[in-house]
Amino acid sequence: MNEVLYSNMKDEIIVIMVKDPRYGNVKSRLAEKLGKGLAETLYRCFVADILHALGSIAHPRVVAFTPSGSQESVEEWIGTGIPLMEQRGSDLGERMKNLFLDLFREGYSRVVLVGSDIPDLTADLVEEAFSVLKTCDGVIGPAMDGGYYLIGFTPEGFSPSAFQGIEWGTDQVYERTMRLFLEQGCRFRALPIRSDMDTVTDLRDLYERHGDGPSGCSRTIACIKKHAREVLA
Fold this sequence. Notes:
Radius of gyration: 17 Å
Number of helices: 10
Oligomer: single chain
Low-confidence stretches: 1-9
């Protein structure tokens, strides 16, 4: 863990989960259509837009990275202005579970994890998630593809089973997680549905929503415009 994370302890914390793009294998479905280079460039834009949006709120932030051993590379990419912590676990579910456990041990009372492929994520939506956690055990943000883009818990309501027995990367992730919440008696609330950027169609839809005016996902929109022949044709 980064010492900066603990020098300014607060009740709430936002965790942005990222993959180091230098190791490849980011946005594989986009890479199949657009090539690995453009997929990596877009991914970096997604993360930059999310960090910019979340930089406007008071809650402390931390970037949780994978794979193991890539901290130096991630620091060069993200910069030194935000603390880093390494994701631990053999799959996505175990890594998310361990992030919650680690931060609850450090005394945080509300922890919200967000993914790295929702470039139009807004500060208001994350603020709403923290507000939900003042009265509920958990909060979740469903994605159009059947997954989720955000999940948060309080220590008292945390349910490790929400990350077990899930077939990650399928369109059943959100539905299965909801069933686990109900089975555990977890008091939860769902946020508005959003689209993550997995396919060229997702990028085109994002451009239709934000391409003609001021946007919180300006870096991603600029990249789409620059590569309009590949993305929008």
